[in-house]
Amino acid sequence: RAVPTARRPVVKFCHKQSGLVGDISIDNRLALLNTRFLRLCAEADKRVRLLVYALRLWAKRQGLAGNPSGSGPLLTNYALTLLVLFFLQTRSPPVLPTVTQLRDLAGDEDRAVVGGWDCSFPRDVAVLEPSANTQSPGSLLAEFFQVFGDFDFMGQVISLQEGRALPLPPQPLEPGEEGLKLGPLNLQDPFELSHNVAANVTEKTVVRFRRCCRDAAKYCRSLQYRHKSTKGRAWGLMRLFQPGAVEPGVANAGAYLISIPLDGGDDVQKLYWEPGGRGARFLEVCGAITFVLRDVLKCACAPRAPGEESRLPEEPAVGSKRHRPEAPN
């Protein structure tokens, strides 16, 4: 499928037998150098791949990333990867060097200028000094959520060249003059400095990303994150990677697992006999049904008018009989 309107025109394809997707682009040297840069970062420290894959999975489960078209309102995998690299550049001591530091380490054979942009960096990871940072991947993951849960995305530019957040640049005064396209999330490409790789992201997605980061940071401080559940429930990273609630209208919701604790006939009976039918289990079932109807099937679920009573069976008087339901379906 050709996408001629993309920033770099591509042909997208899918291998039916494996489900793998890919892009074909012609004469795009910047993309090749970006790929080599990501590979260098991954080889520089073994924690890089762990964090990138973990956060990609987390973001996909939360409905924040993984948009296959790359043109929707969600974070692309590339943008999320650059966020991880920037985060690792800003640790104390840093896990990864900045792009400027890499340029200073580049040899003559590593020099490259594409479209006027200096894309020089070492090709051999042996040139880099090992990081003095000894934090565990789990500690870095929790710290990532804490940092970006309160990050001012709109008020500054994330720069991998400098390894820090920069003030917003002045916008071009002349029509047609190229400048960084500012938006709710300003994430500068490592080499093509006029390209905001998150320019497609909406303010709603940024707000949700920050909120999900805050929730994840809070969970990483809880006992459920550090200790195995005595009730056999998901804990640690497994619980963190469970699908989250997707708000209406979010693209690429995908298949989400909705866990309702109804293990057998006894639990179904308990659900039925909760006083007034308004217990926690009942509300959880209602929430799951609402999610399927409204967000998956896109049905119009009209909210109840204020003061309107819900049409639930009235609780029988004390001493009266109520027929038990037949075998649960």
TrEMBL record:
Region (Disordered) residue spans: 305-329
Native organism: Trogon melanurus
Domain PAP-associated span(s) in chain numbering: 138-195
InterPro entries reported for this sequence: NT_sf (IPR043519), PAP_assoc (IPR002058)
Cofactors named for this entry: Mn(2+); Mg(2+)
UniProt gene name: Tut1
Top-level division of the source organism's lineage: Eukaryota
Bias (Basic residues) ranges: 320-329
CDD domains, A to Z: NT_PAP_TUTase (cd05402)
A biological process from GO: RNA 3'-end processing
GO CC terms, sorted: nuclear speck
Keywords noted in UniProt: Magnesium, Metal-binding, Transferase
Protein name (Swiss-Prot/TrEMBL): STPAP polymerase
Single GO MF descriptor: metal ion binding
Keyword set includes Metal-binding: yes
